[in-house]
């Protein structure tokens, strides 16, 4: 399984297509995969999975989605899976973002496609910058005091 890393800036075109970074396309090719899996993510991002990572989510009877509150579990699964779509690359290395996912993530302007290890996230650059200031940077500083990597 490939590790998805790096940050790339793109724009969504008028037909709701966005480029997938060449490194991510290569990872799909190495897996001999035919498509990525795209769905609504957390904090207003979209999640893009390689087939191997999507399959791993589905293993063990979806245990990764198990919550103590079964009503919340069902609600989360309903959104996550009903909004999932298998997306194929066109000849220019782009994927088509369904309108409902474009709306969910408010995709416009500069769009980031960034690897976060087991998946890629697609989000609006200004939303990411604000999130970094309020959550990522303080957490990174706090956690870094306890790590040696």
Which key features would you list for this structure?
single chain, 149 residues, alpha+beta, Chemotaxis protein chec, 6-stranded antiparallel β-sheet, two-stranded antiparallel ribbon, 23% strand, globular
Please characterize this protein's 3D structure:
By secondary structure, this protein is of the alpha+beta class. The chain has a single domain, classed as Transcriptional regulator MraZ domain (Chemotaxis protein chec, 3-Layer(aba) Sandwich), CATH 3.40.1550.20. 41% of the residues lie in helices and 23% in strands. The chain has five helices and eight strands, in the order ββαββααββαββα. The strands form two sheets. A six-stranded antiparallel beta sheet has the order 1-7-8-4-3-5, sandwiched between helices. It has a two-stranded antiparallel sheet with strand order 2-6. The chain is globular.
Roughly how many Å apart are the termini? 23 Å
What is the N-to-C succession of helices and strands?
EEHEEHHEEHEEH
Q: What is the H level of CATH, i.e. the homologous superfamily?
A: Transcriptional regulator MraZ domain
Compute the CA-based radius of gyration: 16 Å
CATH architecture annotation name:
3-Layer(aba) Sandwich
Beta-strand residue fraction? 15-25%
What's the CATH topology name?
Answer: Chemotaxis protein chec
Mean pLDDT: 92
Poorly predicted ranges: none
Shape: globular
Tell me the name of the CATH class: Alpha Beta
* Count of DSSP strands: 8
Oligomer: single chain
Structural class: alpha+beta
């Amino acid at each position: 399984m490939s590790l998805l890393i790096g940050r790339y800036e793109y724009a969504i075109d008028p037909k709701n297509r966005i480029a997938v970074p060449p490194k991510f396309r290569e990872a799909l090719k190495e897996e001999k995969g035919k498509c990525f899996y795209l769905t609504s993510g957390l904090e207003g991002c979209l999640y893009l999975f390689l087939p191997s990572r999507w399959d791993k989510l589905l293993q063990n009877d979806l245990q990764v989605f198990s919550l103590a509150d079964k009503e919340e579990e069902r609600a989360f699964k309903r959104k996550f899976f009903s909004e999932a779509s298998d997306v194929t690359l066109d000849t220019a290395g782009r994927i088509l973002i369904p309108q409902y996912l474009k709306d969910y993530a408010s995709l416009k302007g500069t769009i980031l496609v960034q690897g976060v290890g087991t998946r890629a996230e697609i989000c609006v650059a200004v939303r990411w910058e604000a999130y970094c200031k309020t959550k990522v940077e303080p957490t990174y500083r706090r956690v870094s005091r306890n790590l040696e990597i």
